[in-house]
Design a protein that fits this description.
mainly beta, two-stranded antiparallel sheet
């Protein structure tokens, strides 16, 4: 049996920024995100 696990943190500094998608449209950037995963092989 083997087990694997991992994690990813996106946007670690969590600074505020703006995304520009169109010439007249501005939206706030995505917030910080944490992803966890695990896998067990029998």
């Amino acid at each position: 049996m083997r087990a694997h696990s991992g994690s990813v943190i996106d946007k670690v500094m969590n600074r505020r920024y703006w995304e520009f998608q169109y010439a007249d449209y501005v939206k706030p950037g995505d917030p910080r995100m944490l992803s966890l995963n695990a896998k067990i092989e029998f």
